[in-house]
Amino acid sequence: MDLLDDVVGALRLGRVHTALWVVEDNGTADWPDTAHVAGFRLAVAGQAQIDLSGGPVLTLAPGDLAFFPRGSAHRVSVPPGSGGASLICGAYDIEDTWRHPLLADLPDVYVVRSQATSGRRHEAQAPPLGGSPSVGTDPDVHHEHREGGASTRALTQVVVDEITRSRPGRDTMLGSLLDLLMLSVLRAWLSSSDATGWASALRDPVLAPVLRAMHERPEQVWTVAGLATEAAMSRSGFARRFTDIVGVPPLEYLTRWRMQLAAQRLRSDDAPVRSIAAQVGYTSEFAFSRAFARNQGVPPATYRRRYRDGVTTKAATTFTVT
């Protein structure tokens, strides 16, 4: 099982929203603060600047991608005299009743530089970014991955080609491509030395087998002692290590993860609630419904009905272009 793909699949709601933004010199676009949306800005041509309130002003060159895991408010602008720019703007509606540690641990904006621009470090285009991958006074605001790699660059080119041409199956093609692009960005974060929390636990030789066991066998009756056995540690030592690194106790993580899986399955198929309850480790439909309602705010049947009526799927982020 690929845990990264597992997490992204469980958290994303509905389809991906995309738009191509083309602007001349001195244009701006403002994005509001939308916690339920994870968004990205992919520079296609020209240069664009991203300004987060209280954070650094970042310059994107063609091929650079800025990812906003929590939908933080920001402004995108094109410097006067630069000749204009175009960006692909995307939005993922995220199940936000529980922000998975993978997204919670990311900085407000994570920039993946293309290989070409990382070599030049934007010295002729923007203020020097310095020798550290973290920029600005607050390292929690912004991190960079300097080398996007060949696969990311190839994906970027195909996305640009699809969004700028009207061909049959375009929306379906774009949705799949942007899923791959998002996974590529998160993979860069997982491999980064800046990665903390869940991402670092995935590289931990002790905790990684435990996370994999939780994800592969959510229906199993897990206890802290049983999970500690997977880690080959004492019960107390394991619980302390898991909580310190992941940020929540092991059984709390397991319960929340089970509820995310249940929500995904309620959205994606017509299986009876009792069947979904069994799939995520509950022998009692009543106990499952109570746990689900505590986590999601409504019982499973209500959640399914509201999702299919379009209530739980948030609208894509709206933005103002000037």
Automatic annotation (TrEMBL):
Claim: Oxidoreductase is one of the keywords in the record: no
UniProt-annotated stretches for the region Disordered: 117-151
Composition bias type Basic and acidic residues, residue spans: 139-148
Domain HTH araC/xylS-type: residue ranges: 208-306
Transcription regulation keyword on record: yes
Protein keywords: DNA-binding, Transcription, Transcription regulation
InterPro entries assigned: AraC_lig, AraC_XylS_family_regulators, Homeodomain-like_sf, HTH_AraC, HTH_AraC-typ_CS, RmlC-like_jellyroll, RmlC_Cupin_sf
Record protein name field: AraC-like DNA-binding protein
Biological source species: Catenuloplanes nepalensis
Lineage: Bacteria, Bacillati, Actinomycetota, Actinomycetes, Micromonosporales
